Amino acid sequence: MTILGVDAGGTFTDFVCIDAGAEASFRIYKTLSTPEAPERAILAGIRGLGLTGKLDSGDLHVIHGSTVATNAVLEGKVAKTVFITNHGFKDMLRLARQARPALYALEFEPIQPPVPPEFCLETGGRIAADGMIVDTLTEEDVSRLLAEIANLQPQAVAINLLFSFMDDAFERKLEAAIKNSDLAVFISRSSAVLPVYKEYERGIATWLNASLAPIVSRYLSILRDQLRGCSLQIMQSSGETIAADKASDLAVNLLLSGPAGGLTAIQFLGRQIGNEKLISFDMGGTSTDVALIDGKINTTIEGQIERYPIGVPMVDMHTIGAGGGSIAFVDSGGMLKVGPHSAGADPGPACYAKGGEVATVTDANLVLGRLLVSSALAGSLTLSLAKSKSAIKALGEVLGMCIEETALGIITIANEHMAKAIRLISVNRGYDPSEFVLASFGGAGGLHVCSIAEAMQMKQAIVPVYAGVLSALGMTVADRGRQFTRTVALYAEDGVAKNLEEQFLELAELGRCELVNEGLSRSKLQVKYSADCRYRGQSYTLNIPWSNLQTCCTAFAVLHKQRYGYDLSAGIEIVNIRVNVIAATKSLSLPLHCSKGEYDKCESIKVYGSSEPAKVFNRDQLQTGTEFEGPAVVSEYAATIFVAPGWTARVDQYGNLLLSNKAIE
Q1: Of the residues 235, 257, 279, which one is the last residue of a structural domain?
Q2: 245-249: long-range contacts (C-beta < 8 A, 24 or more apart)?
Q3: Residue that terminates a domain, selected from 583, 604, 628
Q4: Total domains present in the chain
Q5: pLDDT at 428 (0 to 100)
Q6: Which residues form the Hydantoinase/oxoprolinase N-terminal domain (predicted)?
Q7: Torsion from C-alpha of 148, 149, 153, 158, nearest 10 degrees
Q8: Phi, psi at residue 322, to the nearest 5°?
């Protein structure tokens, strides 16, 4: 069998191909993305890897991380959707949580609601907080709703009735009525998408799922048709994969599809090298994702995209608009700024010579000598130093600085943006970054890894093998699975332990049945349990692994003290229980490193800011155990690494580049 991981990013689409025989062999490929039709870049990669002949053989297994859902939300190009809720609550999405994004703005401009008021419909069928029926759902309610929906002509319908997580009978009745009508719409009900308390967050998740479903379904239909006989799975935001024919029904679970692959790969790498305390640093062409792994990948239900809270489980990471394509500019106050806007893949940075004239982080690295002029991005895209200098010179003239000083300023500002992001997921949560190893990947990460580690006082960093396509690698080793959630709202008191255990077992069986219905073998399913806990009176929760009630409460108190600096004598409440049902993938190991040649001599180049020349290495030709000191530039097919002065680099048995800061003992 051949396994193909595909990560379609904003600038590049990355591929990792594993021929899974007795000894797995790995191949990588990179091509420019085609955002207007992402499947075109995927097919180009399949051709480039020589896999076209396997499309009809049934021997090609594709796992895909897609930005289709993410881009639709960011660009506001979601499907026209009707939102149905109970009488008196049609303004639920407009009111939101009353959080003002600009607290001191004197002329506050209200945020536009995600669904126009005329598309928010009200109905009966209301459940009270105790589960009792307050207002029944009548046939007249249903008939009126069907007529209103037909008049509005939406592409999708989102159903979010109060307390439907306790009793979803009314939501199911509405869903069945719409399905049995002549309305050709996608339907999402909150009790299927996010069956937990907090009607606003549940409503946003349901609206997102409904409004993304037509877009995701259309794209996956095209992709399945193009890939014909291949097995196709889609990466979910939680780090597990889902069958493509099920993915459009849960489109809201795909919003962090690509970045989740990177974290999965870093966890896989950590287990290979025997170090699972890692801070991941994924710098691509458009954005940078950072996350902390302390033995496991953390997930969160408090993620956000644009201004919308995402209540579904997703990997806990922080994303900023700083990447290789981030645009540098001088603001109205004469200050140099970098990002969040990106030059993207087309026209791209000035050095791409595709018509782009604005200076970017990539241009700055090229001018400073950290990125080689001879580099061929994506295997074929040659770089123009003259174009980079011209773009940066224009900025320098405004700032009164030379080209090199301006380029260094761009890099310094970009580095500070990324270091700040790492502080948010480490220091601000009670973790000391110096106790972790910085794991850098993405096409641009290696150029900044030493500077970021120095800013965080981290002694060690690692640039993994296949760093430029690591998210695609993560997709090949991700488990198949789903997460299932239920609100229980029970205080941790005597007598509730048995109730909780019974509900965990019931939810686990529900999850097993779902995955068995998707074609997975029950005997291969594994179950992991966790609970969302809080002190009485609090609004937000911490997710704690579950083995029993006492252990869970103790672990919660410890984590709360670490995260917030205090604990309380108040009782603990178990708000939600969560069950993660997975089918583990076949165990893979990175192949032992085998260099593709040997150096007769080492070229040297001038790097701005260094008093000594930088050595230039081809990563493919570095042998296991090779050790050298910075400054050095290490070039590879899908990325470039800059080893800064004061750092030592060593190649381990898998080909990973281990970096050590000599200044920190």
Answers
A1: 257
A2: 245/220, 246/518, 247/216, 247/220, 248/213, 248/216, 248/217, 248/220, 249/213
A3: 583
A4: 3
A5: 92
A6: 4-180
A7: 140
A8: -135, 110
pLDDT tens-digit series, residues 501-521: 999 999 999 999 999 988 889
Phi, psi for residue 382 in degrees, rounded to 5: -80, 155
Asked if residue 69 and residue 145 are part of one domain, the reply reads no
pLDDT higher than 70, residue 376: no
* Residue 297: DSSP 8-state: B
pLDDT value of position 222: 94
Once rounded to an integer, what is the mean pLDDT over residues 411-417? 96
Domain that holds residue 226: 2-73+217-257
Answer yes or no: do 127 and 143 share one domain.
yes
Size of the chain in residues: 665
Tell me the CA distances in angstroms from 227 to 34, 232, 651, one per residue in order: 17, 8, 38
CB 196, CB 576: distance < 8 Å: yes
Domain CATH for 121: 3.40.50
Mean pLDDT of 52-62: 86
Pairing of strands 120-123, 231-235: unpaired
Taking the CA atoms of residue 449, residue 27, residue 475 and residue 55 in that order, the dihedral angle to the nearest 10 degrees is 150
Amino acid at 518: E
> Does 239 map to a domain?
yes
- Residues with Cβ within 8 Å of 362's Cβ and at least 6 positions away in sequence, in order, are 285, 324, 325, 349, 351, 371, 388, 444
Both 148 and 177 in one domain: the answer is: yes
Q: Quick one: pLDDT band at residue 322, thresholds 50, 70, 90? A: confident
Which pLDDT score, from 0 to 100, does residue 380 have?
65
295 falls within a domain: no
Is residue 619 packed enough to be buried (19+ CB in 10 Å), middle (13-18) or exposed (0-12)? Answer: buried
For the residues 584-602, what does the mean pLDDT come to? 69
**Assigned domain for 110 exists:** yes
Beta bridge partners of 231: 61
* Per-residue confidence (pLDDT) for residue 67, from 0 to 100: 85
Give the residue with greater pLDDT, 598 vs 172: 172
Do 536 and 491 contact (CB within 8 A), yes or no? yes
Query: Is residue 16 very low, low, confident or very high in pLDDT (cuts 50, 70, 90)?
Result: very high
Task: Specify which residues 299 forms β-bridges with.
Answer: 315
3-state secondary structure 495-525: CCHHHHHHHHHHHHHHHHHHHHHCCCCHHHE
Antiparallel, parallel or unpaired: β 336-342 and 381-382: unpaired
**Which residues, 6+ apart, have CB-to-CB distance to 594 below 8 Å?**
none
Tokens 């493919």 -> residue: 620
Q: Tell me which residue has tokens 């005597």.
A: 494
Written as one letter, the residue type at 261 is G
Distance CA 178, CA 184 (A): 9
Both 47 and 124 in a single domain? Answer: no
154 close to 120: Cβ distance less than 8 angstroms: no
Residues 177 and 238 in one domain: no
Say if residue 154 is in the same domain as residue 248.
no
Using only the alpha carbons of the chain, give its radius of gyration. Answer: 26
Q: Confidence band (pLDDT; 50, 70, 90) for 21?
A: low
541: domain CATH number is 3.30.1490
Residue 235 lies in a domain: yes
Would you state the pLDDT for residue 599?
Answer: 56
Same domain, 50 and 103: no
Contacts of 108 by beta carbon, 8 Å cutoff, 6+ apart = 100, 102
Instruction: Check whether residue 13 and residue 100 sit in a common domain.
Output: no
Nearest Cα residue to 383 out of 391, 392, 374: 374
What are the residue ranges of helices labelled H in 400-469? 403-425, 449-455
pLDDT band at 56, cuts 50/70/90? Answer: confident
